[in-house]
Each structure stands twice: as structure tokens, then as C-alpha cells.
Amino acid sequence: MTVRHIEFERLHNFRDLGGYRSADGRTVIPGALYRSDSLGKLRGADWDRFLALDIRTVIDLRYPWEADAKGRVPEPHRFTYANLSIEHRPYDQAEIDPDIDPWRYLADRFAEVAEDGVEEIRQAIELIADAEPGPTVFHCTSGKDRTGLIAAFVLILLDVPEEEILADFALTELATERLTADWHTAHPGRTMRWPAYGRAPATVMELVLADLRARHGSPIAYLTDHVGITPGTVTRLRARLLTATAPEAPVAPTTA
Asked: Per the CB 3.0–4.6 Å rule, which of 25, 87, 134, 143 could disulfide with 147?
């Protein structure tokens, strides 16, 4: 069983996308692609643990002003570093009206990102496919929404079943309590209006994928026809992130 969350003191949502099975039976290679909350929080022993992963490429999905205010990955010159802000309409989740449907609201924000951020989404996926040898990590602030969307798109292109994509998105729920605590520490004196802050139930991604089907025919059609992911990029992505062959099925014992 693949261990997804990697424990850090200051990072709460750093995890490995390895181990998921594609439709052809191949497996996403463990230790090749990671997703995370803000790498600007890396310090001390956390930084040492991060360096031990031998990550070569860092994709920061935040707004440039977020990265300026909260910090980028330390020593960015060590990496191929790209700041690709896929979100173009900022909003404050802590101030969301608690009376609205939270999952529909989040799915609608994802739909905005999917339409506004086409260029950056394409660039991020191409960079994952074409990065220099070694592991890659992509992240936003909480490793939840923007990061969750790119993770879903990559897994779709790797032909991972939808139930696994939904399950991967929902793993952020294991980090919700610490992400919420971080918000309160960073905003003393403010009241969090939205009780669903930091939540990431599978329902949100289920709605997002349903919206892409309604608007574009299918999530894969959205990625290829609207975002512009080429067959060559898909081939390189799969060659980079999937095992070369599917594991052989165990031979059933014979009975005399």
C-alpha cells in the first residue's frame, strides 16, 4: 500500500501521487510527482527532509503576490522553478457566506479556474511532462483547490479511474484541522465565517468533472481540445510517470 502523506512539521498536505493504477494496468511511479501546500513554509528539519527527496522541479500555482508575501521555496536557484498562477479571480474562502451550498460554490470557483487559467494549466502539465530528470512537485497555499485541480488533470491524462481521482482529492481532509489552525494563527483577531474552510470532500471534484462533461463533452476533451494538451505531451507524461509495463497477474494455484 502506497503511503501518500509525507510528514513535515510545517507542511500539512505534502503527498506522493505514486501508486495509482492506470486503466492499462500500469502504475504511477512512487516518488516521481508530489503535491503540496506552500513550500514557503519550509524551515530547518523540514527543509532537510524536502532536499532528501531530490526534487528537481517546483511548480508554484499561486498568484505572484501570494508568493511574494508568503515566500517561495527556499533557494529557488536549486530547482527548475515556475510560478504559474492558474487562478485569475481571487476570493477569500474564510469570508464565504455560511448559508450557501459550500460544495457547489467551490465547484463554481474551479470552473472559473478551468476557463480562465487555460494557458497556465497547459504550461504546468507540459512542464510536468518535460521536466528534467528527477521528481517534480506542484503546490499552492493549502495544496487543496488549485493543486487538487492540477492533480486531477494529470491523473486524468494518465488514465487513472475517476474513483481514484476523487479519493486523491479527498485526502486533503486529513490536513483540514492543521490548515484551519494555521489560518487562525496567521489572522489573529479575524473571525472565520465559513465553517467548511479547509474541507475537500470528493463531492467537490465530482461536481467539477460533471461540469467539464456538460461543457466540453468529457474531462479529457476539455484537456485536449480546450487546454491544448497534445498527444505528444500525453505520451511523454505517461512515459515519465507510469511504470513501463503492467505487473503480471498472479497465477492461480492449480488443484490436483
From this structure: 143
State the pTM of this model: 0.94
d(CA 73, CA 76): 6
d(CA 172, CA 184): 18
- CATH (one of 3.90.190.10, 1.10.10.10, 3.40.190.290, 3.90.1150.10) for 15-173+192-241: 3.90.190.10
- Convert the pLDDT of each residue in 143-186 to its tens digit: 999 999 999 999 999 999 999 999 999 999 999 999 999 999 99
Please say whether the beta carbons of 60 and 41 come within 8 A.
Answer: no
Transcribe 80-123 into DSSP letters. EEEE-----S---GGGS-TTS-HHHHHHHHHHHHHHHTHHHHHH
